Amino acid sequence: MAATTETVLGVFAHVDTTVKALEELRARGYHDLTVYTPVPVHEIEDVLERDRPVSRVRLFTLIGGLTGTCSGFLLTIWSAMQWGLVTGGKPVAS
Predict the structure, then answer these.
(1) Alpha carbons 10 and 33: distance in angstroms, whole number
(2) Where are the domains of the chain?
(3) How many of the other CB atoms lie within 10 Å of CB of 18?
(4) Measured distance CA(74)–CA(68) in Å, rounded
(5) SS3 sequence, the chain?
(6) Residues 6-64: pLDDT tens digits?
(7) What dihedral do alpha carbons 72, 73, 79, 84 form, nearest 10°?
(8) Bigger pLDDT: 41 or 94?
(9) Do 73 and 89 contact (CB within 8 A), yes or no?
(10) What angle do CA 54, 10, 37 make, to 5 degrees?
(11) What is residue 1's predicted lDDT score, i.e. its pLDDT?
(12) What is the value of pTM for the model shown?
């Protein structure tokens, strides 16, 4: 037999009543909450993301960005040193 799930549907006109209802639901033990809004609301995000772990995507993005930046600079410097391309009388890595 399949497990039953409870669904609560609420429609709110104001952000403050929505935030209050979300906090009350969390206090009663509901933690898997989904909220749909026409625009991003930071107060609602703050309430919903209290228990969620921090995503590791940020770390991978940072590592990828730094690796790409370093690789680009090193490739440019290496190719300028390898073929002796001096532009404007400046040092190779200026």
Answers:
(1) 11
(2) 1-52, 55-94
(3) 19
(4) 10
(5) CCCCCCCCCCCCCCHHHHHHHHHHHHHCCCCCCCCCCCCCCHHHHHHHCCCCCCCCHHHHHHHHHHHHHHHHHHHHHHHHHHHCCCCCCCCCCC
(6) 787 899 999 999 999 999 998 998 888 889 999 999 999 998 887 777 789 999 999 99
(7) 160
(8) 41
(9) no
(10) 55
(11) 60
(12) 0.53
Q: What is the pLDDT of residue 82?
A: 86
Tell me which amino acid residue 6 is: E
Name the region of 54 (left: φ>0; alpha: ψ -120 to 50; beta: rest): beta
Mean pLDDT along residues 66-79: 94
Nearest partner of 49 among 28, 37, 34, judged by Cα: 34
